[in-house]
């Protein structure tokens, strides 16, 4: 190998390793570091135990597999909530079966926060397949991967969402397409809504808010502890989040937008307006039950 190429490759590997270990160098107590390691270990083990318990659903044929997998996906979400110290309360009625749930997006924590509340199938961007831990678990949970860069592959993903809804499964998606920064709500991509149009499925708007971290209010200054905004290494961010004792979150559900739907763009705009209202406005109802 050319010596300069070898040096560049070695430097790149060292930078990657340093970046992955940077969580350990941050201002974190020894207790926090130990908590993070223990929780992430428990999450990995607990997640694969959920997969093992769902083995019958994993080998079930589609489209039936989506509905059979959905209770196990919710169980996995609750495992993730416990391992990351996330406690959730809800406002409004939970989505009915066979609905498309759309929400604002801060990062992977939203998947656990919302997905642990009801039997669910996840719709995710295609590159999630390559994420450490999450990618393999997502595939085992019959996640529907949607490739927005390739039209044919994207259409195939939307057709799968349509089939899942028609089978009676509830699908959760984040139509912003990526995690937004503090206070932001990116325009909703309309592709996912075509599935609701084709399946004549209700669309349930949902808004997630993070209220406290270790007893301190969540502000723009510390939201990035939970939100994954800045291209930070995934493992680094997850360990940093897991080092905190407790996160309080609230998920608000709006009234379903009932079919028939006129077209996907009109539906996307209506859903975005309702999600914004739920996120920014006063609660329409009392929080149901205790903190989960």
Cα radius of gyration in angstroms: 19 Å
Strand content: 5-15%
Instruction: Report the major sheet.
Output: 9 strands, mixed
Helix content: 40-55%
Number of domains: 1
Count, helices: 11
What is the number of beta strands?
Answer: 9
Structural class of the secondary elements?
A: alpha/beta
SSE succession: HHHHHEEHEHEHEHEEHEHE
If you average the pLDDT, what whole number results?
Answer: 87
Distance between the termini: 56 Å
Low-confidence stretches: 1-25
The dominant shape is globular
Structure, explained:
There is one protein chain. The chain has helices spanning 3-20, 22-25, 30-53, 55-58, 64-84, 108-115, 134-140, 151-166, 191-199, 234-242, 264-280; strands at residues 86-91, 100-103, 121-125, 144-146, 171-173, 203-213, 216-217, 247-253, 287-288. The longest helix has 24 residues, at 30-53. It has one domain (27-281). Helix 5 (64-84) packs across helix 6 (108-115) and helix 9 (191-199) packs across helix 11 (264-280). The chain contains eleven helices and nine strands. Strands 1, 2, 3, 4, 5, 6, 7, 8 and 9 form a nine-stranded mixed sheet that branches. Mean pLDDT is 87; it is low at 1-25. Strand 3, helix 7 and strand 4 (144-146) form a beta-alpha-beta unit. It is globular. By secondary structure, it is α/β, with parallel strands linked by helices.
Q: How do the helices and strands line up, and which of them pair or pack?
A:
Elements: H1 3-20, H2 22-25, H3 30-53, H4 55-58, H5 64-84, E1 86-91, E2 100-103, H6 108-115, E3 121-125, H7 134-140, E4 144-146, H8 151-166, E5 171-173, H9 191-199, E6 203-213, E7 216-217, H10 234-242, E8 247-253, H11 264-280, E9 287-288
Parallel strand pairs: 1-8, 2-5, 2-6, 3-4, 3-5
Antiparallel strand pairs: 1-9, 6-7, 6-8
Helix pairs in contact: 3-5, 3-10, 5-6, 8-9, 9-11
């Amino acid at each position: 190998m050319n010596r300069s190429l070898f040096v560049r490759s070695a430097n790149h590997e060292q930078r990657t390793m340093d970046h992955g270990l940077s969580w350990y160098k941050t201002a974190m107590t020894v207790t926090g570091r130990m908590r993070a390691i223990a929780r992430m270990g428990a999450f990995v083990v607990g997640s694969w135990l959920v997969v093992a318990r769902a083995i019958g659903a994993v080998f079930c044929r589609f489209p039936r597999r989506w509905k059979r997998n959905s209770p196990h996906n919710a169980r996995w979400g609750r495992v993730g909530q416990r391992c990351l110290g996330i406690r959730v309360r809800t406002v409004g009625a939970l989505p009915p079966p066979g609905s498309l749930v759309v929400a604002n997006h801060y990062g992977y924590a939203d998947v656990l926060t919302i997905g642990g509340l009801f039997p669910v199938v996840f719709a995710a961007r295609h590159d999630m397949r390559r994420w450490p831990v999450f990618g393999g678990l997502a595939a085992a949970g019959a996640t529907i991967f949607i490739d927005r860069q390739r039209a044919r592959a994207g259409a195939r993903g939307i057709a799968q969402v349509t089939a899942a809804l028609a089978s009676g499964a509830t699908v959760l998606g984040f139509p912003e397409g990526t995690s937004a920064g503090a206070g932001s709500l990116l325009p909703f991509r309309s592709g996912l809504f075509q599935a609701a149009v084709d399946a004549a499925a209700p669309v349930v708007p949902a808004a997630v808010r993070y209220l406290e971290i270790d007893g301190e209010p969540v502000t723009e200054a510390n939201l990035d502890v939970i939100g994954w905004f800045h291209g930070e290494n995934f493992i680094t961010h997850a360990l940093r989040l897991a080092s905190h004792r407790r996160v309080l979150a609230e998920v608000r559900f709006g009234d379903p937008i009932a079919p028939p739907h006129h077209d996907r763009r009109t539906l996307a705009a209506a859903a975005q307006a309702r999600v914004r209202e739920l996120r920014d406005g006063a609660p329409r109802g009392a929080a149901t039950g205790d903190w989960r």
